[in-house]
Structure formats: C-alpha cells, structure tokens
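Journal club prep — side note

Before the paper discussion, L.F. wants everyone to see what a predicted structure for a comparable chain looks like in token form. Sequence:
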Amino acid sequence: MARTFAYCRVSTLDQHTDNQVREIEASGFAVDPKRVVTETVSGSTAARERAGFAKLLDRLEDGDVLIVTKLDRLGRNAMDVRATVDALAAAGVRVHCLALGDMDLTSSAGKMTMGVIGAVAEFERDLLIERTQSGLRNAKAQGAVLGRPSALSGTQQAEIRERRSAGHSLRVLADEYGVSRAAIQRVEKRMPQPT
C-alpha cells in the first residue's frame, strides 16, 4: 500500500510550515503526522544536502507519494528540482505539486511540465549571460577598467619589470612588494615584448 509523505520547507526561522501542512490537508491528502517532514533551510541549498530531505529520502520506498505545495519547496534551481524529481521517479516515488494543479511530476504531463520549466530557466540564464556580457563590452568600450584593482601601483609595476629584466627572482620581488609570486608573474606577462 502506497504511503503518502509531505515535505514542507521554509527559508528563515521567522517563517513557519503550518500553512503548507494545512494546504496539503485541505487538498484531500491524508498524511500521517509522522510522515510530514518540515525544515528550515534555504532553497538555494541542494535538496540532497538538506538534513530533513536526506532523511526523507532514506524513508521513501517504491510506490510512495511525496506532496509539496510548490515546486520551489524542492529548490530554487530548476536543475536541482529536475534532478530531485528524476531521482525520486527512478525510485518509484510519485511527486505531487499542489501549485501545479496537484500534478504528478513523474507522470508524462509532469515530465513535460518539468521540461518546459527547465527550458524557461535555461532561457532566462542565457539572457542574463548575454546582458552581462553586453554590459561588460559596453563598459570596456567606454574605457572602464574591468576586474579587481591591481595590488601594485603603476610605478611599482614599472620597477618590477625593470628588475625582472635585470634577473631578479620572483620570490625576492614578491617578498619586497608584499604580494604573491603570481602577482609578479602577471606584471611580467604584461611587459611589452621586444620587436
């Protein structure tokens, strides 16, 4: 006989899972209180890394049903949610999401919905990358210096170039200027090459 579990999550200590539990009860699912798993953890934490969810995974068996009120209870990252649902489906666990019309995410319609959600998330991520790259190109074209500021002034960099040309070691220069050897190497890489 299939057992029904509920997973209710909030992100901060000043929030409570009571509303999620009531919503699941109101939707007609009879969940034994021993099978209601609640926890307070950020949705940005991967589902498998959450203590409560990890214990829940150990309890779930083939044929069981897991209820969540919203998809974001499983995670904020579409890839993590998809991987979690796929892993549960592979174990024979059905995942119902009330916010999606009590859809079983492991069904054909649920898989299609998860695919659409994943595609939209990927599209949004790609747009963000494009906008970021465009902004960086525009800033660079307007003369902005990108990246973190150098630990060495222009004068110090010129001194380092001269001293490296004269054969001073990376270690000695790094110690004198109070930077890493890698910082000295970066200055050296920017040295004008002889023509």
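L.F.'s comment for the group: The chain has a mean pLDDT of 88. Keep this in mind when we get to the figures.
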